[in-house]
Structure formats: structure tokens, C-alpha cells
Specification:
This protein is α/β, with parallel strands linked by helices and about 240 residues long. It is about 40% helix and about 20% strand. It has 2 domains: about 1-115, 3-Layer(aba) Sandwich (Rossmann fold), CATH 3.40.50.2300; about 130-230, Arc Repressor Mutant, subunit A. It has 8 helices and 12 strands. The strands form 3 sheets. Strands 2-1-3-4-5 form a 5-stranded parallel sheet, sandwiched between helices. Helix 2 runs parallel beside helix 3 (about 60-65). The longest helix is centred in the middle third of the chain and has 14 residues, at about 105-115.
Length: about 240
């Protein structure tokens, strides 16, 4: 698998290149945003590890540029820990977000989680469920989300992490899915702690799927425990 790392910190670039190469990945590096976009276009990596604060083009501009023509996985690795920065990156099209400083074990878990699915990698099976949230239809088999609101129809893009959250919720419709179940299932290790990531992703999903995100009808929080997808009938 080919990974492009874009960061203007040469020491971090070198450390990540050595670590990921040792794990069997093919690694490319870029020290600014413009170089990252150029390498992404020329070398077609499967995954981009992207810092937000870079010269020439910042991280959000890189995401926007790449999303114009590619569905490659984009994992933001940034020192910006604010919710606004995370939301801006995810809204632009990033698939996941890790805050510096991070443990290499967490980073590798996030990489594995993204590459398990790929951009449209959900397996099409006879048992893949379909869920309807009002005018929105989520088809896990076709890997599509479509809003047939009134006379219009539009596709809704979910990131790979959002797909994994929705798959767990849909397959357990009307039942509690605990935070630990989500963390372990998505990131593949019980060592990943909930540092607000799940709340952020659920908030993003509500913006995409709920009629009134601030007053959710379908994606419900079970205080102190986890989340539940409320449907008329279990999927």
C-alpha cells in the first residue's frame, strides 16, 4: 500500500517514513501543500497523512483540491485540537483526524481502520441492510446514501469512519451500541480511548442525516453509555 505523508516538520516526516516503511508500506513525502497535491496526482497513493498547517497550500485547501478528483483516504494528523478545526477538515472531505502528539499505535490503528474499507470498499452481500431515515436511504450493500427529499434527489458522501459507525448502528438498530464497542470495532484495538472523536463523528452524521441536527430523531445519544439508531423497524 502506498502512503503519502505531507508535513512541514522534517523530523516527523523522517520518523514516520522510517516507521511506516518498516511496517511494509510504500511511503512518499511532501513538505508543503502544493507538493502534496502534485504527488497525489502523479503517484496515486491510497492514503494521505496530512498536516493542516503547511506552506503554499494549507491542509484544508489540499483536501478540497484532492476531493475534486479522488476518493483516496485522507487522515489528518495535526496539532490543532479544536473542534472547529476538526469539523472544517471533515467537512472538506477528510476521512479521519488524529491530534499531535499521538502514539504510533494509535496512528497505525487509524490507518488499518481506513484501509480495511477503502473509499468504496464495503462488501456487497445479500444480507447488507438498508435503513431509511425519513427521506434518506442508506444502502450498505450498494454503499450509497441518497436523500429523496420532495422533488429532488441528492447523494450524500460519508467518510469510511462514518460508514463504519453507521453499519454498526444499522445492524444493531433500536439497540444500544456502547462507546467501547464502537471504538474497538472501528479502530481495531481496545487501547484507543474516546477523546471526543465519537461525539464529533456522530455530530457530523447528524448534520448529514438528521432533519434537525440539534434535535435528533434517529441518531440518539444514550447518556454515559453510547448511541442508538432509532428506526421504526430494526434493519
Amino acid at each position: 500500500m502506498k502512503i503519502l505523508i505531507a508535513d512541514d516538520d522534517p523530523q516527523l516526516l523522517r520518523a514516520l517514513r522510517i516507521t511506516l516503511t518498516a511496517k511494509g508500506y510504500e511511503v512518499l513525502t511532501a513538505s508543503d501543500g502544493a507538493e502534496a497535491v502534485s504527488l497525489a496526482a502523479d503517484r496515486h497513493p491510497e492514503l494521505l497523512l496530512l498536516d493542516l498547517g503547511m506552506p503554499r497550500l494549507d491542509g484544508v485547501e489540499v483536501i478540497q483540491a484532492i476531493r475534486g478528483w479522488s476518493e483516496m483516504q485522507i487522515l489528518v494528523v495535526s496539532g490543532r485540537a479544536g473542534a472547529d478545526d476538526k469539523v472544517e477538515a471533515l467537512d472538506a472531505g477528510a476521512d479521519d483526524y488524529v491530534v499531535k502528539p499521538f502514539s504510533i499505535e494509535e496512528l497505525l490503528a487509524r490507518i488499518r481502520a481506513l484501509t480495511r474499507r477503502g473509499g468504496s470498499g464495503a462488501a456487497v452481500t445479500a444480507t447488507a441492510p438498508v435503513a431509511r431515515l425519513g427521506s434518506i436511504t442508506i444502502d450498505m450493500g450498494a454503499h450509497t446514501v441518497v436523500d429523496n427529499d420532495a422533488q429532488s434527489s441528492r447523494s450524500i458522501r460519508l467518510t469510511p469512519t462514518e460508514w463504519q459507525i453507521m453499519e454498526l448502528l444499522i445492524r444493531n438498530a433500536n439497540r444500544l451500541v456502547t462507546r467501547q464497542m464502537l471504538l474497538t470495532s472501528i479502530w481495531g484495538t481496545e487501547q484507543v480511548k474516546d477523546t471526543g472523536y465519537l461525539r464529533l463523528y456522530v455530530s457530523q452524521l447528524r448534520k448529514k442525516l438528521e432533519p434537525v441536527p440539534g434535535n435528533p430523531r434517529y441518531l440518539l445519544t444514550e447518556a454515559g453509555m453510547g448511541y442508538r439508531l432509532q428506526l421504526g423497524d430494526a434493519a
